[in-house]
Sequence to fold (583 residues):
Amino acid sequence: MAIIKGRVWKYGDDVNTDVIFPGKYTYTVTDPQEMAKIAMEDLDSDFAKQVQPGDVVVGGKNFGCGSSREQAAFCLKYAGVGAVVARSFSRLYFRNCINAGLPALTLPESPDVFKAGETIEIDLSAGTIRCEAGVFKFPPLPEAVIGIFNDGGLIPHTRKILGTDR
Amino acid sequence: MGKTFAEKILGKKAGKPVVPGEIVEVKPDIAMSHDNTAAISKTFKEIGVARIDDPDRHVIVLDHCVPAANDKFAQNHKDIRAFVQEQGIKHFYDINRGICHQVLPEEGFALPGYLMVGSDSHTTTYGAFGALATGIGRSEMAVIFATGKIWLRVPETMKIIVKGALPQGVSSKDVMLKIMGDLSADGGLYKSVWFTGPAIDAMSVASRMVLTNMAVEFGAKNGYMEPDAKTLAFLKDRARAPFEVVKSDADAEFESVVEFDVSDLEPMIACPHTVDNVKPIGAVKGTKVDQIFFGSCTNARIEDFEIVAGVLKGKKVHPSCRMIVIPASQPIFLEALAKGYIQILAEAGATIVNSGCGPCMGNHEGILAPGERVLSTSNRNFKGRFGCKDAEVYLSSPLIAAVSALTGEISDFRDLL
Ligand code: SF4
Fold:
């Protein structure tokens, strides 16, 4: 699995899906590029303008709480985000990240050990995150969902299983 | 050792005994989607399967922006109607039926022992009928369309015992806000939450739905109550299929047991911008509000109308604020009409809107302007929730919303007695 290298976008506890992807857009904004442009709109207006491929969104507890809207995971992926790291995730957000093929990594030390804007390196196969404060280990994804993630998300995974990708 | 409710239902579906933490592939009994069905149908087409696995398990309700606020929403609805036709989905409810989480119970789809999923986080509501019900993402619903199946993690169970008799005028909404405030927004993360105890037993089915509706607000996978005589009376003449009541074994293992005594509970308010930022009403009394929203899948049922109309009868909404009223479903609208509640509210100066989600997630019918403040009977007060990130959302019970409508500021009914 890949190495992810990028800058840290640091946020706090309970970042909810409404600030990541506002409800008023959920039925009308569906184009990936348009979705990327409104990522984090109600939390951080600089984010969508300045995010670069590989950047990492970092949060505290209960990241992605609130709605089931998977656009809150997909919009970060479309914006180029390499991974989301948090102390804990809401269950819907965690599922949506896996289904989007976006690494959602649980790290008890997050976000305290990260500095906003620093460049960090994540090794998915080794399960490590290297930042200025040191090297931290995160637990592997549950066995049963690794297949989904490795296939690039739920839809490509389902196509593979059903044989409709051929 | 005995099994919990969640272990029993997921074990039965998986065809083997299961333990918490295990991931199982299961076939839900009912899968609900709403205005997001257009997006789901596009993803379903990408999967490359022509026909839905089992159309009769799917229920589709148009509610999130009804009637359509603009051409984009209209196109969205049009796409859904075409998909429903094409796939022969018979459980389809168009824009004139109400909010999905009210419609499914009314139509007898929410049944004890059922495994239910919905592409909406408040799918947890159906737990009030003894179903294991949880929210899923759009892609996951598309896969259920294609294969009928989904993976779920078997959750640990948290037992919440609510003791005591609620003081007059204090409701299940206040109980839930109290629980949220004490346990915090991740207090039930990933868990199956069982609400039980004398205070729950004393509640109506509609009041119980408030707790399961908001269970997701503290991270729970599902919230549920054991069906009793009231539940069965509600289901009589409604249930679409035979069902089996499933209960936790007496010797089942719970990860945690939490007790609340609500004998002295005060009206509670969730303050901006998180649902667990809960304060007793005394702390926020006098806060001016520009709008009262009496609606949503949380608190806009007939018992709520009775309370709100009781307060506003013969009186006027304060001229410094507006009041938006949206019944949770069409049958509730009709009953509120027949009982005179709609007349009372309209005469008081409230704006009555057709059943649906309305401004609850910021689509239409009562969006706020920057700097404005709403007191709402809904379930979520995140930034931007009423369509404007520079507005503030406070949450309360219907009774507090009603008395605050009279004064234009957050008010305690006990001061007006
Ligand atoms: S009323 Fe609000 S919370 Fe309920 S389903 Fe509609 S948008 Fe969601």
User: Anything to note?
Assistant: The radius of gyration of chain A is 15 Å. Residues 70 and 95 of chain A are 9 Å apart (CA to CA). Chain A has a mean pLDDT of 95.
